[in-house]
Every structure is written in structure tokens, then in C-alpha cells.
Amino acid sequence: MEMRSKEEIEIGRDITATLTPLSFCLHTFYLHTHCSACFSSLPIPNPNPNPNSLFYCSPPCSAALSPLHHSSAERHLPPSAHSSHLCTALRLLLSHRPTSSSRLAGLLSNRHILTSLSVHDDVSERISVGAGAMAEAIAKQRGIPNDDAVLEEATIALSAVLTNAVEVHDNEGRALGIAVFDQIFSWINHSCSPNACYRFVLSSSSHSGEAKLGIAPHLQMNSSGVSISSSEFAKGGLGYGPRLVVRSIKKINKGEEVTVAYTDLLQPKAMRQSELWSKYRFVCCCKRCSALPSSYVDHALQEISAITCESSGSCSKFLKDMADRRLTECIDDVILEYLSVGDPESCCEKLEEILTQGLKEHLEVIEVKPDCIFMLHPLHHHSIKAYTTLASAYKVCACDLLSVDSETDINQLKAFDMSRISAAYSLVLAGATHHLFNSESSLIASVANFWTGAGESLLSLSKSSGWSMCVNLGLVIPNLASAMKFKCTKCSLMDRFRAGMLNGQIKSADFENVSNEFLHCVSDITQKVWGFLISDCQFLQSCKDPIISSWLMSTKSSSTVDVEVCVNKTNMCYTNESENSVSMCHEQTLADHAVACIFQLGVHCLAYGGLLASICYGPHSHLVCHVQNVLEHEKNFVLYSH
């Protein structure tokens, strides 16, 4: 099945009303911290969670879900088999029964494909074991024999949940549980270049503006050759639970199919295809996956460079694939070690070594020469993962230093340096993904988060107490407050963001103009402060400009990335030596300008991230409101300082 637009839809429009689920369940880990009915945080978390005991934020939530919980067979599941997927499937069976075509509530179950004898993997094993536990629980609940008919019913229900359920995320991005929605949402197909996305609305008291339904089912033959009639399109969920709204992220023509993404779009094609097959048993044939040769974005996300001392040296795709797997292992091992051991400084050193020096170890293949070095493309998906981790790890390093001894001069200065480099990596991350976004606009949600993160990091740096530390060391420090200006005179970004907050709408042409203005301003500002931000960081010094495409590094026949420092293009030079070796390139007024630029850069990044977020999630979403609050605080700070 598929859903198509009933009319022409502009970018950034709600195309469904707020949808409630057919069935849902919290993950076990959150049963004691969140309401089991609406998934909002509990005011007082319960310290003793029990799979058979649910907790609610309010009497209405308890009255809504408690009867369903006690009527379903989930109470009879053994503790070892209790999971959100099994509970969701059992709750779904209370009000719906499978049809002869193995559909449940009009939803495709993929039952025969997922449990095919020719494909035995984790998914088929999970269904076999889970359906067995469900069948036993159903038999106990109904007081009937546990026969093949009950097992078939359980298998179809669990398959339908695995095929149609979506992870419900909170404002911090945590996956709280799962939910299955009716055909309005579940019949929307996947694309790796989608024109729509969806947001969740949690808490029983929050409201999302109602929109008329802008999509309708495109009736066609199902996989069994049976014609699907409009009578099977039964709308309506439970009326409570975590809610969902579908929103356009591109301009959609009347009659065009509406699609969303089932997987991470910043993964290369092979990884997306593998995940889609393992979870849903289909091969994506969208325009991005079908492109020959591969699209620029997919090429960059998986590109590995092989550097040899011989200019004519080259390596086969097989060898590059081997190097890719080994580099993947190296980066994943470093990140896993960081998450388990908690040593951010070591993590930063190891990741930067991989990014700068590549894979130098000898692959046990005869064709590979000892002097062959494999490098990740700076837009490789693991490079992007590394930038994300480095921005976070450097920030943690700064916090750790200040928590140990915030009174020590050297600790304060070192923490300031860590914050500076963290902000630089945040900017690199935003610039890199925006470069991909220029070719694949469906990456808008990821880019919105990265620009927002870069903006907050830069604003935090602009007001860091580390500047006063530099005063103690006798350095010439700019008067930040006197040099700051909140609103840019060269672009309409701030006005466009505020207008978006009022009406929640923007036209495609307007968005393109604002984006061009933003990139021009940000690139100009970045040139003035980039040398300061990347001082003493070898890998970042190889990035000429994190905003425009020329930031992509050149790799020559050497053991490391060619480093070109662009300090001479900035208005500020910096080093952290305690002696009088830190100087301003020019005079005090230039210093004022240079540091104020960091503030201006942060404001631009934050406002643009908020504008992108308003397109993805709507003007009243959590991220947009957060950006608005931060910008309002910064505006008041500047006015007060003046």
C-alpha cells in the first residue's frame, strides 16, 4: 500500500492531524520513570519497577490504559519473555483479529516473509520464541488449549508489530517505547530520500494544532494479488497514548506519493539496505538507492582513499572494503571504550589519530603494499560519527577539568581550550552534514540538530569564564559585551525565524533565499575566527573552512593528512602558553571584533537550526521552543550588557 497527497503541499506543513496509536508499550527500562499511557515523565519515579505493575502520571491516563493492561494476556507472560513488542502485540489482539490475508487492523504483517524457512536469522528466531510465549499467555487468559490456531494468531500479531511499529522518542532523543499506528501512518512507505517526517507528541496535557488530512491511500493490488478496497482503510486509534504528526520536509505535488524514512539517512547505501532487509525484508528501490552511479552523498558516506608512495599506485574495491571494515572496527572500539571506561581525553587522542593518519596497519592480503595507507573521506559516515563523539568528548574533558579544581589557572585555561576545540568540532559537524544536505534535502532533521548544537556550543564559548583566566595571565582580552550585536544587518535569518514562530510556515523559495544568505554570512564570520578555534588541534588545522566545500581535506602521498593552517586569514591568533607568547594580530579593536564574531556565529547557527527544526517538527515543537528561549536570553544579555 502507499499514501499519496490529496493536494499540493508546501514545505513545512502538517499533513495529518494528531494520530493516536492502535497499540503501544513502554520499554521495560522506563516503566518506573514514565507514564505507561502517555509516555510523559513521572513526577516521582517508582524505585521498584515490575513488568506486571504500570505507573501513570494522572488519573485519566490510569483510567485509559489500566483496563487494557488487565484485559490483555501480557500479565501471563513469564518475566524472561516480557518485552514491549510482545505486550504491544497482545494489546493489539484485544480489539483486532487477523484476516485470512494475514493482515491485522488493515496492516501488513509480512508473516510469511519474516518466518520463511529459507531465511533463518535473529528476526525469525525472535518471532518463533516470542510467538510461543504469547500463545501460551493467550491460552491462559482465554482458558483455551494452546493449539496451532492460537500460535498462528500470535505469530501474525507479533509480525505485524515488528513490521509496523515505530520507536517513540522523547525530546532528548531517547527511545522510550514503541507504538503501532493505523493505516494513515502505517501505509506510508519508506524512502531513503523521503518528502516527509514525523514528530511525537507526549504528555496527556499537551496539544498539537489540528490539521486536515492531506493524504489518502492509493488503492492497488497487495502482494498476494488481491485488490485492496477502501473499506479496509479503517481510521482511528485508541484515543490516547503517545501521539504522532506527519509533516512535509519537501514540497509535495498533488498525487505524489508521501514517504518517510525507516532508517538513518546518514548511513551509506549498503548499511541502509542491510538494515531494511533484516527488519522488514524488502530491498529499497527509491531514487537515491537506484541511482547509477551512486549519488554524491552515498559516494561520500562510504569513500575510502588509498594513499601509496607511488603515484601510480591503486587499490581494488575489495581491498578498500577490507580497510573500511577495519577502520569501522577501530572507530567503534574507541567509542565503545569511551562509553564503558569514561576516558574522554584518550578517546579524543585515538579518534584524531585515526582521522589524521588513517589505517597504517598491514592488511593480510598479498596485494597490499606495506606503504599503503587507507584514509576515511572527511564526509564518510564514520568521520561524521567521530566528529560527533569528539565534540562531546572535548566538552566532557572541559567539565572534568573544572570539576577537579576550578581555581587552578592551568586547569581553567586547559578547560577553555577543550571548550574551544569542542565548539570547532560542532561547527565541522554542522558544516559537513550541511554540505551533504545541499545534495540530499531529506537530511534536514539531522542538520537541524547539528546546527543547533554548534550554535549553543559557540555561544557558550563566547561567554566562557576562560576569558577572564586569560586576563589573569596578562593577555589582552576583548571587551565582549561592548562588541556584541544580536541582529545581523546582512541577512534576514532572524526575521525569518521569528516569522516562522508566528505562522509556522515558509515557502520553498523563501527558504532557499534565507539558506543562501545564512551560508554567506556564516562563511564570512567563520573565516575571521577559525584559526583561533582550531589552534593546537592538528586534524582541525587540516580543515581550510568548515562551512564551504573547500574545507574538504586534500590527501597526498604521505603518512598524514596534508595540514594547511589558515591562521593568517583570521583576526585573532592564540596559544595557551603562560608566558607572554600570546598576542593579538592587530590591536584591541580587532580583538573585540574577533571574539564578538564567535557570538555572532553562534546566534546564526542557532537561529538557522531553529528554522530547520520548525520545518521538520513545527513551530511549537520542543527543539524550536528551546532555540527561541536561548535566543531570547542572548538578546536580553546583549541589551543588558550594553
UniProtKB/TrEMBL annotation:
PROSITE patterns: SET. It comes from the Eukaryota. Pfam families: SET (PF00856). Residues 115-263 form the SET domain. This is SET domain-containing protein. It comes from Glycine max.
